């Protein structure tokens, strides 16, 4: 694919994804991302459809810049050439958000417990790796103000829940917004239960 076309494609993917990595939820930019094939290009021809390698529905933007850099230990590089249509929960799937549940600690597990595809996706992409859990936990604690004198109130939480999946003026979503959405819902239901 010619350079300018590839750049235009990447720019469009970044905008559509709100500048978040499709697999991890990390904030990404042009300099910190690559174009990822959901169904890897490295698969034998017999397992690929004609034109699939350039099919827009098979492409997402992911961290890091070098798609082969496994040094972070999670995400697209560790997924590598793994592919199993029945066991991969695609970030483009309508059910993606429902298949993963996050803890205040930043850990992730399959939902419902033991869901085979979600479990396999977590394992293959190392989505519960300590380094990634730590980043999620930091985002949660900072967002909720747990380490400050003014943690968010129930009123704040209701307002934030309405806004959490909306991009800012530059088109950027908050890193880990899908995690924070789950935590806001849990925070509100726990608060309601305690005051009910």
Describe the structure.
The radius of gyration is 18 Å and the shape is globular. The model has no long low-confidence stretch (mean pLDDT 92). The protein has helices at 3-16, 76-79, 116-125, 130-144, 154-163, 177-195, and strands at 34-37, 59-62, 100-102, 108-110. The protein starts with a helix and ends with a helix. The strands form two sheets. It has a two-stranded antiparallel ribbon. Strands 3-4 form a two-stranded antiparallel ribbon. It is mainly alpha-helical and 196 residues long. The chain is built from six helices and four strands; from the N terminus they run αββαββαααα. Helix 5 packs antiparallel against helix 6 (177-195).
């Amino acid at each position: 694919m010619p350079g300018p076309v590839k750049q235009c494609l990447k720019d469009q993917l970044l905008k559509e994804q709100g500048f978040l990595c499709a697999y991890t939820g990390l904030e990404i930019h042009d300099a910190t991302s690559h174009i990822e094939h959901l169904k890897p290009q490295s698969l034998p021809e017999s397992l690929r459809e004609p034109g699939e390698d350039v099919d827009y529905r098979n492409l997402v933007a992911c961290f890091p810049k070098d798609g082969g850099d496994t040094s972070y230990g999670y995400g697209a590089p560790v997924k590598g050439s793994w592919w199993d249509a029945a066991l991969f929960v695609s970030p483009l799937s309508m059910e993606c958000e429902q298949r993963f549940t996050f803890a205040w600690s930043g850990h992730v597990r399959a939902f419902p417990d033991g869901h085979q595809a979600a479990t396999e996706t977590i394992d293959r992409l190392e989505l519960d790796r300590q380094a990634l859990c730590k980043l999620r936990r930091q985002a949660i604690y900072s967002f909720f103000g747990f380490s400050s004198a003014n943690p968010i109130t129930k009123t704040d939480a209701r307002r934030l829940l309405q806004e959490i999946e909306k991009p800012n003026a530059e088109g950027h979503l908050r890193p880990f917004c899908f995690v924070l959405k789950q935590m806001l819902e849990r925070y509100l239901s726990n608060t309601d239960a305690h005051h009910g």
